[in-house]
Amino acid sequence: MRKSIYASASSLLLTLCASCVDDTYDLSKDIDLTINVGGSEFAIPGGETEAIPLSKILKIDSGDLVYIDETTGNYYASKKGTPASSTIHVNGFSFDEPDIKPTYKEIEFEPETMLYAGIAGTGINFTAVLNEEDYSSDFEMSATDLPAEIVSLSQIYADINLSIDLYYSSEQLKKAKIKDIIIDLPDYLITEGTDAGNIVHIRNLDVYSGNTVTTNVKVNGLNIIAGMMNTTKRTLDIAGTVKLYGELSVNSNDIDGLGTEAPAFIFVSQVKIKDAAKSDKKVHILGAKGIFNPDIDINIDPITIGALPTFLRDQDVVLDLSNPMILFTANNATPLNADVNARLRATSETSEVIVTPPTFRIPAQSAQTYCISPYAPADKTLVHVCTPDLPKLIQKIPKNIYVDASVTAVDEETVVDLDADYSFDTDYSIWAPFRFGDNLCFAYRDGTAINKIPLDIEVSAVALGIADSSGERKPLNGVTAKVKIVNETDNILKANSTADIIVEIRESVKGSVSQIDGLEITLKAYANKSTPESQRIINANQTIQFRNIRLKVPGGVRIDLN
Question: Is the pTM of this model over 0.90?
Answer without folding.
Answer: no
